[in-house]
Amino acid sequence: MGNRIGVISLGCAKNQVNAEQMMYLLREAGYEILPSVEGADVVIINTCGFIDSAKSEAIDHILAMAELKAAGVIGKILVTGCLSQRYQQEILQELPEVDGILGTGSYGYIVSAVKQLLAGKTVSEFGDINAPVDEVGRILTTPEHYAFLKVAEGCDNHCSYCVIPSLRGKFRSRTLEDCLYEARMLAEDGVKELIVVAQDTSRYGIDLYGERKLPELLRQLCKIEKLHWIRIHYLYPDEMSDELIDVIASEPKIVKYMDIPIQHVNDQILKKMNRRGTRAELDELFEKLRARIPGVVIRTSLITGLPGEGEAEFEELCDWLRVHKLERVGAFAFSPEEGTPAAKMEHPDEETAARRAEIVCEIQSRIMDECNDARIGTTMEVLCEGFDPETDRYFGRTYADSPDIDGRVLFTSKTAVHTGSFVNVNIIGVCDGDLVGVIGED
User: Fold this and answer.
1) Which alpha helices (DSSP H) does 325-441 contain, by range?
2) Which of 123, 131, 173, 128 shows the shortest CA–CA distance to 152?
3) Cα separation of 306 and 320, whole Å?
4) Closest to 199 (Cα-Cα) out of 168, 176, 175, 160
5) Spatial distance between the Cα atoms of 209 and 217, rounded to a whole number of angstroms
């Protein structure tokens, strides 16, 4: 019986953490985790099933693995994650090449599932998606200088366009002690940038302690000596307390980068989408952040073509962007997901939604050009992430850039720069949206 495991992880950072936990459990049980899928006795595809594009990506990977399986390159195929949870019956019925599926409540069942697959059995396991979060080790799949710290699982927001609560369960925080213990272990292993994530990070602790505990968690994380940067993702606008803003502003280790998904600014659309808050409250929040956190970089996500979005509502969104000039914006066309209230509401057609997303991206591109031009002539701290022989330059990120989401800094240096080190780079230009700089007198 083989013991070689290949793992493909799709979707968000939170999903990536689950994949890392499964890899850890398998390694502890004596299995070999391969660097690629070739030669694997079992290939695990940890899927996202949030929107149509994510579902298509997952199915494409499953079909690609099915071809390798037919060619004898790999053995069994196990599909885990959100796609499995969402389509519990359909996957095994419509994709006969798949040998087993695990839901999002069954990651801890991974060793048993692999054993059964290798014994020739079919696996279909769906545990309680509302169970307390398991404390499990991880095999990091990120570069060794940064890692994600997932502080909670699930979501209680129930936005009318979103299926996540039905796939991931109710919001469940990890304890402060468990989060801090893992953060200390990651720092001891060489992690210098810790990225704090959850579906709604700003709500952290409210289910366990009866109050938001993110400010306290951040203060404690900042005391971990070997951590240099602490980055926070997915802060919901209505949960941004003055205490949290003060902590972010006052703690040097917390990078002044705030990922705040707002989705839209029109009051009627926000109400239809079951989003808490109004445009006026968003305006007030962003003005407060600019005033209290000098140099803050704000990222948000927007959905075009939502139910209720006509030309006037869309123009309102565009005008809002031109006024607030957020540094980082991701725009996505509305995807009506079956089982959600929004899917039953009247909405612009797919082509219109996609065209509007393109318009938002064009507006944002000009805003980002202005932001980059303003950096020229400044010196910025950069986390070096490697050397690109094609450009003969090092590359890295500033506090304004989250990994695999935002831009890079390309820079030269007369002396060697080690991956994972922090250096001060003089910004001298922009190339294809990336900053260009030098160290010293190059």
Assistant:
1) 350-375
2) 173
3) 17
4) 168
5) 12
| 341, 313 Cβ separation under 8 angstroms | no
Q: How far is CA 105 from CA 84, 85, 126, 128, 158, in A?
A: 11, 8, 6, 5, 19
The distance of Cα 123 from the centroid of its chain, to the nearest Å, equals 29
Question: What's the mean per-residue pLDDT of the chain?
Answer: 95
DSSP collapsed to 3 states, 83-152: HHHHCCCHHHHHCCCCCEEECCCCHHHHHHHHHHHHCCCCEEECCCCCCCCCCCCCCCCCCCCEEEEECE
Contact call for residues 148 and 142 (beta carbons, < 8 A): yes
Enclosing H/E stretch for 389 = none
The residue type of 40 is: A
Phi/psi class of residue 386: alpha, beta or left (left: φ > 0; alpha: ψ in -120 to 50)? Answer: left
**Tokens representing 37?**
């899928």
Where are the extended beta strands (E) located within 305-353? 328-333
Cα–Cα distance between 292 and 288 in angstroms, integer?
Answer: 6
Task: Tell me the DSSP string of 243-297.
Answer: HHHHHHHH-TTEEEEEE---B---HHHHHHTT--S-HHHHHHHHHHHHHHSTT-E
Q: pLDDT tens-digit profile of 90-138?
A: 888 888 999 999 999 999 999 999 999 999 999 999 999 999 999 999 9
pTM of the model: 0.94
Q: Measured between alpha carbons, how far is 332 from 54 in angstroms, rounded to an integer? A: 12
